[in-house]
Amino acid sequence: MNVSSRLAVGSGLVLAMLLGVLAYQVIQVRRLAGVSRDLARSGLAAAELSLEQAHDLDLLETSARKAFLTGDPDYAKQAARLAGAIERRQRDLPSLLVQPAARAEAERMSELLQPVVQEAGGLLPSVSEAGYLRRIEAAREQGRAVVSAARRAIDEDAARAQGDASRAQNVSLLAACLALAGSVAVLAMTARSINGPLGRLAGATRAVAQGRFDHALDASGGDEFARVAEDFNVMVRRLGELDQMKKDILSNVSHELKAPLAGMQETVRVLLEEIPGPLTPGQRHLLDLNLQSARRLSAMLAKMLDLARLEAGTMNYDLRERDVVPIVRDALAELEVRASERDVSFRPAWPGGSLWVRCDGDRLLQVVENLVENALKFSPRGAEVDVAVSSTETASPEGAPRTPPAVHSDGSNDKSVLITVADRGPGVPEQDKERIFERFHQAGGGLRRSEGGVGLGLAICKEIVAAHGGAIWVEDRPGGGSVFSMVLPESVVPGGGEAVAREDAG
Fold it and tell me: How confident is the model at residue 3, as a pLDDT?
C-alpha cells in the first residue's frame, strides 16, 4: 500500500469513529428529549389534575354539608354539578399515568368516586350524611395517594433520564478517547512509515556527499519511497561509475605523462650542462625557466598520482619507529636552494635529543616538505619561516585550536610530537581554515595559482597524517601569517636508540 492510500485509510478510520460518536450523541439527545416530553405530558399533567380533583372534593364536601344542614336543594344541585366535573376529570387521569403503580392508584380512585358521583344526584333526602362524607374523605385520601404515585413516577422517570444521560456521557467519553487513541495510532504509523524512509534517504544522501558511491537503499515495497529509492540507487550507481572513470583517467593520464616529462627534464639538464655546446646567458635563463616549470608539473603529477592511490586505497606505508628531527632537517635541506632563490631563510627549533614516532619516513618527509614549500610560496622576500619540533601532551597539544583535532594514541605514551611551520604570508581566511584541506580547494578563490598549485598538497597531507593516527590544522600567527601544525603520537623506544634511523630520508 502506498503512502497516499495509507493516509486515506487512516483518515477514513478516524472520520468514521468521529461520525459514530456524533450519531450516538444525537440518538441520546433525542431519547432524553422524549423522556422530557413524557414527563411534561403525563406525570406533571396527572399531578396537576389530581390536585384539581382534591380541590373539587373539598368544594363538594362543603356543598354537601350545607345541603344536609339547611336542606336547601340549591346546595344539593351545586354538589351534583361538582360531582359531575370530578367524574369527567377522573376519566382522563388513568390515561395520563404511564407507571403501572400510579395507574392502579388512579383506577382505585375512580372506583371510590363512583358512589360519590351517583349519590350526588339524589343527595336529599335519601343519602346518609355521615356515610357520604366518609366516602368523600376516602376519595380525598385516594387522591393524595394518586398525587404521591404521580410524583414517584416523575422521580423515577427523572432518575432514569439522568442515568441515561450519565451512560451517554460515559460512552461518549470512552468513544472520544478511543477515537483520539485511534487517531494518534494512525498518525504514529503514518509518520513512522514516512520518517523511516526519509531518514534512510537522508543518511544515504550524506554518504554520497562524502564520496561513498557504493551506498544503496532498500527498494523493496510498492510505495512512492520504493520508487524514489530505486531511482536514487540508479543515480548513485551512475555517479560511482563517473567517479571511477575520473579516477582512472586521472591515474592513467598522470602515469603516462611522467615518462615524457622525465625525458624533457633530462634533455634540459643535458643542455644546461653544455654537453651539446656552450650556451649564452639568455639561453641558460630560458632553460632554467623551462626546468623549473617541468619540476612544478612533475610535482603536480606526483600529487595527482598520490591522490589516485589514496582514493583507490592502494597507498602503502612502511611504518616503523623513526626519529622525527632528522626527517624535518632533511626537508629543510631539500628546500634550501629554493628558499635562497626567494630570499627567505629558515629558523629551525628542535630539541637536542630524539623524538620518535611510528611513521613512514618518506611520507612524513613529503608532508613536511609540502608545508614548508607552501610557507615559501606565500612568504615575502626577506622573511623567515619558523620550523619547530617539540614534545607535547596528547590531550592538549601546544598551539592547538580551541577544539583540537583528535590524536589516536596506542596508550603506551600520553605525549605527542608537535611539528609547526609558521610563515609571514597573507594568512588563511577564517572560512577557509578547514576547507583548504579539501581536494582542489585554494584559499581566496584560487589565490597564487601562478605558483603552480592545484589544491591537492594539503589534502594529501591530511590523508597521510590521518593514516599515522595524527592531526593537522592551521591557525593565524600573531603579527600576521599562518601557523600550520601537525601532531603525531610519540613512541617510546626501548634502549634509547634501537629504532630505525633515517637512512632512506633522502
Answer: 60
In degrees and rounded to multiples of 5, residue 488 shows phi and psi of -135, 145
Domain count, the chain: 3
In a domain? residue 236? yes
Instruction: Answer yes or no: do 368 and 472 share one domain.
Output: yes
DSSP string, 23-42: HHHHHHHHHHHHHHHHIIII
One domain for residues 122 and 65: yes
Quickly list H helices, 210-223: none
How far out from the chain centre does Cα 337 lie? 58
Residue 459 pLDDT greater than 50, yes or no:
yes
CA distance 50 to 277: 149
Quick one: which of 478, 482, 484, 444 has its CA closest to 462?
484
Q: Which domain holds residue 410?
A: 321-496
Q: Is the distance from CB of 325 to CB of 364 less than 8 angstroms?
A: no
Q: Is the pLDDT of residue 496 over 60?
A: no
Cα Rg of the chain (Å, integer): 55
Give the three-state DSSP class for 212.
coil
d(C-alpha 363, C-alpha 314), whole Å: 14
Sequence-separated (6 or more) residues with CB below 8 Å from residue 505: 326, 327, 330, 361, 362, 365
Please count the residues of the chain. 506
> 3-state class of 484 per DSSP?
strand
Phi, psi dihedral angles at 349 (to 5 degrees): -155, 115
Distance of CA 270 to the CA centre of its chain: 68
d(CA 111, CA 106): 9
Q: 6-55: per-residue pLDDT in tens?
A: 667 767 777 777 777 777 777 876 776 666 666 555 667 777 777 787 88
Q: Look up residue 364 and give its three cell numbers.
A: 612524513
Same domain, 462 and 481: yes
Yes or no: say if 99 and 153 are a contact pair by the CB < 8 Å rule. Answer: yes
User: In 3-state terms, what secondary structure has residue 49?
Assistant: helix
DSSP string of 381-431, one letter each residue: TT-EEEEEEEEEESSS-TT--SSPPP----SS-SEEEEEEEE--SS---GG
- In terms of pTM, does the model score above 0.70? no
State the pLDDT confidence band at 271, using cuts at 50, 70 and 90: confident
368 vs 314: which has the higher pLDDT = 368
CA-to-CA separations, 110 to 95, 106, 139, 247, 452, in angstroms, rounded = 12, 6, 8, 114, 126
Say which residue the cell 603506551 belongs to: 412
In a domain, 382, yes or no: yes
Q: How many helices (H) and strands (E) does the chain have?
A: 12, 7
Q: How far is CA 288 from the centre of its chain?
A: 62
Given a cut of 80, whether residue 114 has pLDDT beyond it is yes
- 474 shares its domain with 327: yes
